[in-house]
Amino acid sequence: MTPPPEPTDAAVPAIAGLPPLASAVRRGVAYRSRRFTPPALAALVEHLTRAGPAALAAVERRQLAAAWGDVVEVFADPTSAERRRLAAPLARLSGLSPAGLDAALDTVLGGVRRALAEELVEDAPRCLEPSPAWVVLASNLPALAVQPLLPALAVGRPVLIKSPSAEPLFAPAFVAALGRRLPPLADAVAAVTWPGGDRELEEVVLARAGKVLAYGGAATMADLGRRAGRRLLAYGPKLSLAVIGAGAATDAVAAGLARDVALFDQRGCLSIQAVYAAGDAVALARRLARQLGALAERWPPGELTPQATARVQELRATAAMRGLEMPPLPLASGTVIVEPRPQLEPSPGLRTVRIHPLSDLHRLPALLAGWRGRLQGAALAGEEAWALAPRLEALGISRCAAPGELQSADASWHNGGVSPLAALAA
Questions:
Q1: What ranges do the domains of the chain cover?
Q2: CATH topology of domain 21-237
Q3: Does the 239-401 domain belong in CATH 3.40.50.1980?
Q4: b or e along 153-176 (b: 16 or more beta carbons within 10 Å of the residue's beta carbon)?
Q5: Which of 149, 271, 368, 401 could serve as a FRET partner for 107 with CA atoms 20 to 30 Å apart?
Q6: Is the pTM of this model over 0.70?
Q7: pLDDT of 1
Q8: How far apart are CA 43 and CA 148, in angstroms?
Q9: Residue 149 and residue 112: Cα distance in Å, rounded?
Q10: Distance (Å) of CA 319 to CA 284, 285, 387, 402
């Protein structure tokens, strides 16, 4: 592979009519930027629509899987030119610590490596009418682009990725590397960015997109739903939790819970925000606090915003006034509170988790009924916890895993209960 170019917020085919590269700076990170107008974006979408399907059809499945695997390994290697070029800018833009970013990239890229790509590409149905898929990314997780991109390419659908303005660099770097490794892909995939909510630009894309995959907040999902209709596959805000059976609250389980809390600084839809424990909740809280403290040394927390800090400080003060068990931890390392009330509440962030004692775990699905459709994953430990899996899935939970594995979903995961291959091939 040829050396990667300097960071840019766009990876596009070599066609006429595109805006020139200009200098840009965000949060102290300098990069090259293309500022799209509606005519320029229309030219790009038209090229993907016209040339993309044929370009993908000309690529053999084994070639696609091999090229994908090679590029993923390059970006997974901390010593590669691509990874080194992006590491500092991504840490600054994402607000993660350098070690936290490394852990995040290892996890996301670990779910799309060669073996999974070979399996996914081999099993994928071909899209019969491959109009472009428009992928709208959120800024909370770096490298998220690889999750929808692999299944889209596997079914033969061209892709336009819109990166968030807050982190516009990873997707273009990855897409450009794919094009260098397997040149036909340069006519089938593009990654660009523009300020979210620009209706004039978005209508250009919606006029030709056959599918829209969107990650983001509820307002964004509602707006796109009104305009994209049934083409939209929405990955909106959801919450994940853990269920620990009596006798299952071991040090190993606590270490797994800590990983699922701390990874991505608790920003992901699979980040644990609450724990329901049938056994000794106080003992589990102390184990979890120790593990979070140790993990904060390996993966130091990223940026502590004033807003998040204030929310957690208020929660800590309220817990102290109520006399709740709260093992001592520095604010940046996390917060663990034993909350006797069973009602589920979202975490304020900064690796904060409530542990709810619940001696009869069979009560849990009824307690969570009001959250139906807003739950994403459950980390389960112990037979009685795993026995709840079917009832939790009926509430909309689409991933159950052991503590420590919840965040390690791969690109075959049926996020929201929907097969990515089936959705993109339809």
A1: 21-237, 239-401
A2: Aldehyde Dehydrogenase; Chain A, domain 1 (3.40.605)
A3: no
A4: bbbbbbbbbbbbebbbbbbbbbbb
A5: 368
A6: yes
A7: 52
A8: 23
A9: 10
A10: 17, 14, 32, 29
